[in-house]
Write a structure and sequence with these properties.
46% helix, 5 helices, mainly alpha, 6% strand
Length: 131
C-alpha cells in the first residue's frame, strides 16, 4: 500500500495511509442494487444491523466462541488487541462509520468478523479455495 508523508507543523510528520475501503458509488449501485447489497453475510461496518443479515450475526458469535476454545484465549484478549488498532482501522474507511458503532461496539463487531473469517478459513478444505 502506498504511504504518504504529510507535514504537520515545523518539521513534525506523520504517516498518512489513504482510505482503501469505500462504499459503492450511488450511481453504480442504482444500476443493480442487489449486486452490491449483502444477501447473507456482511464483513465490515457498512451493513451492520440490517435485519436480513442478523441470522448470520448469531453464527459469527458462535464462531467466535469456537475460535476462543481452539486458541485458549479470552475474548478480552482479542478485544484489547483490537482496541489498540481501532483508530487506524477507522481511517481505512472512506466514509465515516455509523454513530451507533461507538468504540466498544465497533471493536466487538470487527472481532466477530475477523474470527468468522478465520473460522471459515480453518474449516474449509483447501481443495475448495480458489486463487
Amino acid at each position: 500500500m502506498e504511504k504518504h508523508i504529510v507535514d504537520i507543523e515545523e518539521g513534525e510528520a506523520m504517516t498518512y495511509e489513504p482510505p482503501c475501503i469505500f462504499r459503492v458509488h450511488e450511481g453504480l449501485r442504482n444500476v443493480n442494487k442487489e449486486a452490491y447489497t449483502p444477501m447473507l453475510v456482511s464483513i465490515g461496518p457498512y451493513h451492520y444491523g440490517q435485519t436480513k443479515l442478523l441470522a448470520m450475526e448469531k453464527h459469527k458469535e458462535r464462531y467466535l466462541k469456537l475460535v476462543l476454545q481452539r486458541t485458549n484465549q479470552t475474548e478480552k484478549y482479542y478485544l484489547d488487541s483490537m482496541k489498540k488498532l481501532e483508530e487506524r482501522a477507522r481511517k481505512y474507511y472512506a466514509d465515516p462509520i455509523e454513530d451507533d458503532l461507538n468504540s466498544d461496539n465497533l471493536i466487538v463487531k470487527v472481532n466477530e468478523d475477523n474470527n468468522h473469517k478465520l473460522w471459515v478459513m480453518i474449516t474449509t478444505p483447501l481443495s475448495t479455495h480458489h486463487g
